[in-house]
Amino acid sequence: MIDTETISIQVMEKHRVYLERLENFPIKKAAYYQQLKESTNAKSSRALSEITGEDWSYIAKVLKTLQLPTPIQTYLSEHKEPAIAKYFHLHRLLELVRLEEEKLQFQRFREMLELARENAKL
Fold first, then answer.
1. Are residues 45 and 56 in contact, defined by beta-carbon separation less than 8 angstroms?
2. How much of the chain exceeds pLDDT 90, in percent?
3. pLDDT category of residue 4 using cuts at 50, 70 and 90
4. Residue 87: closest CA among 98, 70, 75
5. Are 31 and 66 spatial neighbours (Cβ–Cβ below 8 Å)?
6. Roughly how many angstroms between the first and final C-alpha of the chain, as a whole number?
7. How far apart are CA 30 and CA 22, in angstroms?
8. Distance from the CA of 118 to the CA of which of 1, 14, 36, 101 falls in 20 to 30 A?
9. Mind listing the pLDDT tens digit for each residue in 57-116?
10. Residue 88 in contact with residue 76, Cβ under 8 Å?
11. Contact 56/88 with Cβ under 8 angstroms?
12. At residue 3, does pLDDT exceed 60?
């Protein structure tokens, strides 16, 4: 007989480890949450919180990064250099989201990217 409780615990542990690995990649984590939301028919961040065990407000913030223009999301997903990943943490990405206007987001992103590259040279 299969112990379903043990299997559930193992699945949740793998899920937790995966989420920890995504911590430095907010865009990828947001995409994961979005996929999880769609696959489970979760209607809100609170519903995702019940599934993942993470704070709903944190999940909501991560999902906001999906409001960034697609070219910015693509760039950050494809450039996984440690300096870029470290620089573009969740708070910086939310700063870009708050600008709302795409032109301003691109302008600020370019400035931030330049700073990230300068910091990497130090």
1. yes
2. 62
3. low
4. 75
5. yes
6. 59
7. 9
8. 101
9. 999 999 999 999 999 999 998 887 888 888 999 999 999 999 999 999 999 999 999 999
10. yes
11. no
12. no
pTM for this one?
A: 0.80
Round to whole Å and give the CA distance between 121 and 117: 7
Question: If we measure between CA atoms, which residue out of 45, 24, 26 comes closest to residue 93?
Answer: 26
Token code pair at residue 81: 């250099």
CA distance 107 to 56: 31
For 87, which DSSP code? Answer: H
- Name the region of 89 (left: φ>0; alpha: ψ -120 to 50; beta: rest): beta
What six digits make up the tokens of 73?
A: 């999301």
One DSSP character per residue, 7-54 reads HHHHHHHHHHHHHHHGGG-HHHHHHHHHHHHHHHT--SHHHHHHHH-S
Structure-token pair, residue 76: 């950050």
